[in-house]
Design brief:
The protein is of the alpha/beta class and 532 residues long. It has 19 helices and 16 strands.
Length: 532
Amino acid sequence: MKRNILIGGAWPYANSSLHLGHIAGLISGDLLARYYRLKGDNVLYVSGSDCHGTPITERAKKEKTTPKEIASKYDEEFNRMFNGYQFSYDLYSRTFDDYHKEKVQELFKKLYDNGYIYEKIEPQAYCEHCGKFLSDREISLTCPECGQETKGDQCDACLHVPTGAELMTGNCIDCGAKVVEKDNKVLYLALSKFQKEIEEHTEKVKHEWRINAQNETLKYLKQGLLDRAVTRDLTWGVDIPLPGYDDKKMYVWIEAVMGYITDTMKLCESRTDCTWEDFWKEGHNNKIYMCHGKDNIMFHSIILNALLLGQEENYHLVDTIVSAEYLNFNDQKFSKSKGIGMTALEALDLYNSDSLRYHLLSNGPEKKDTNFTIEDFENTHNGEILNKFGNLVNRTLRFKGLEEVPNGVLDEGIKAEIERTYSEAGDLIEKLEFREAIKKVMELVEIGNKFYDDKQPWIAKKENIEEFNNIIYTCSVVIANLSNLFAPVMPTACGKIREYLKLEDASWNFVSVEPGLKLENIEPLFTRIEKK
Ligand SMILES: [Zn+2]
Ligand SMILES: [Zn+2]
């Protein structure tokens, strides 16, 4: 039976370019979306740019422009980048869209009406000269640990995070005036009220999660969930839909995760085959995946579920957390400022997107941090993608003098291997073992190549034309099925194969090839990367 599968990809922060490590963390979502579509499920894959918050306003101030300009610039860049990497989002939006803001305000209001958001008066850092409350990052102070001048969110030198009392010794970063304490009105989310329900839900579904997600979530639950402030004194963000909060906006952590719901609502407004509730309410044969890096776990496993529970409207909670470890570059953290690694767009200027996807997935940081080197990538491309997969396609479909798919008989042993690969690779993908799944499909390539080598079609061509036809036909069927099995990983190359063999849309089912089909204008799928 067709399931409704919602896949959420984390919302990247529209403040700087993304690097290959970000793609490695997000691409699992695209793999899952493409796989479940092949299985025939009703899939929605959504994400967008996270456009609010202080780092963007600070950057705008520094560059003498508006926060919207900064966010728009990176949102445009992210769109180009995700297209380049062939991410198949059904909707990639952004948090400053009016639709998102309106729907988030409705969800927020519901939390308030249901008693999960409450007001608290608390003393906060204030600048009398600028006439405003200051966030941690808007305070400069002498670090009490190491004596360096530092910003209030964290000391760059010793990583000390200043306490509330320490912040009151600092100065306003804009005007230098001494910080004073002043009572402020703040709204809090009563996260603690959801402790029991989130514990029970986590216990029920966590066996499917990545191990880092289990550990991180249980750590928070064990400590006991703490209420969190949801308003800040900012001018850029989503307005608070309550009287008396005109000078405040929502924290990004609460509004960005609701983007998964607002995206679904928006998408389903223009669809006749489904409603947004099919994906977000109980009882619709649905499943929700969240795909992101390990720094984002609690926002999806705890916060989002709390926001859903707080609606008191029979929402379906997040089922599966697909949280990646980190990808490093030459054993170091990617860092634009230190010139370590390359941005995701720079990599696309140098290499083809299918190969980057294959490499990032087949060597992905699934269970531990992994390392990216140009050398490893080039070895994957030349050694596996080109020499194994590309070669099988090339030497079969471009066999010298071959004009059409011969009228041969499919080898029964090979047919069984193909069917086994669908079942085993599919199981592995559903268990989030993407590396192993890709290995499994590559084994089928190797089986095809071994069959070809053992049967020696170049000799059969001269000595036994029937045998030749059987070999080439069998290899053509392997290739046709590889265009299904590899479709979630290398969509462009698989699309070319389907064009060559005049195949229908890809699916996760055995497919055969029509004998007598003309083989025309067939080009090699990949070209060798020459090492510099
Ligand atoms: Zn000031
Ligand atoms: Zn320090």
